[in-house]
Amino acid sequence: MTKKLALKVDVDTYRGTREGVPRLIELFKRHNVGATFLFSLGPDHTGRAIKRVFRPGFLHKVSRTSVVQHYGFPTLLYGTLLPGPDIGVKCADILRRTRDGGFETGIHTWDHVRWQDGVQSAPQAWAEREMRLACDRYADIFKDAPKTHGAAGWQMSLHALRATQRLGFDYCSDGRGRYPYFPVWRGEVISCPQLPGTLPTLDELIGLNGVTESNADQPLLQSTASMEGDQIFTLHAELEGLRLLSVLERLIVGWKAQGFDLVATRAIYESTTPGSLPYSVAELGTVPGRSGTLLVQGDDWPLARAA
Ligand SMILES: [Zn+2]
Q: What is the pLDDT confidence band of residue 274, given thresholds at 50, 70 and 90?
């Protein structure tokens, strides 16, 4: 059986949607690979993230990856000095062209900054409202209901996990981990399966252990060379779709040479038998190279499988 590697594209900003997504589509088509695009569908308020500068760990990350180069200068003013453009309204054609190009599409978020900064402390109604805003906009644009969700910044809460069950998603890819599982949050089983990202992102590698923007493909290819199971790699339209496009192209070529079938995340979902997926603890944890906590797959949960 061939091993699969899913390319999951998180699209965070207006600029990433307009400039990064078309370049990624061109690259993926040229190499004849599948991918999943998860869109931010409401206002781009990236500028409001500037308050994160005052959080521990953020300045360290800024010193490794230039935020201004990463996002572009106007993007950093959206939601502060400039009004935030409504991505779903302004970029609906690009979103539909992505689907028409044969790629899987789904939801990243409604308002990236508000979700990342708000979901941990927000009540059930807030989490569900934010997700419903994105689902409704998705349905407006695609005339179809969204089937998958990958949380902004891998930020989730029990309330958000509960909402994944109610919003009709087949599966979600909201956190980081080892393999597909049903999440168990403090003893509560969530019936929507999670397909976690299994590999580090390029921005987590760059700046550590001698990894630079020009050689970041090397440590990833070294680590995947001996991997046998299916993998999910998250990339960003703002980064791999723009400045790191050539690094991504080397990864695609390298992964193909290692025998991976490069696919949309859905292809991994469709190759699983949902009834036989393991249960694992879902909790907040850390990953190397990234500041703060995010949703991670913990230990397997010793629970009898559903009959
Ligand atoms: Zn994101």
A: confident
Residue 108 pLDDT level (bands cut at 50, 70, 90):
very high
Residue 305 lies in a domain: no
Distance 305 CA to ligand 1 centre (A): 33
What per-residue confidence (pLDDT) applies to 53?
Answer: 55
Distance 63 CA to ligand 1 centre (A): 20
194 and 181 in contact (C-beta within 8 Å)?
yes
pLDDT in tens, 275-286: 889 999 999 999
CA-CA distance, 252 to 7, in Å (whole number)? 9
- What is the CA(307)–ligand 1 centre distance, in A? 36
Distance 79 CA to ligand 1 centre (A): 17
Distance, CA 276 to ligand 1 centroid (Å)? 30
Residues in the chain: 307
- Provide the domain limits for residue 17: 3-300
Q: What is the distance in A from the centroid of ligand 1 to the CA of 229?
A: 25
Residue 71 tokens read as: 């996002």
Q: What is the CATH number of the domain that holds 20?
A: 3.20.20.370
Domain assignment of residue 306, yes or no = no
- Measured in Å, residue 302 CA sits from the centre of ligand 1 at 32
Q: Is the pTM of this model over 0.85?
A: yes
Which residues neighbour 20 within 8 Å (Cβ) at sequence distance 6 or greater? Answer: 11, 236, 237, 238, 239, 240, 241, 242
Count: domains in the chain = 1
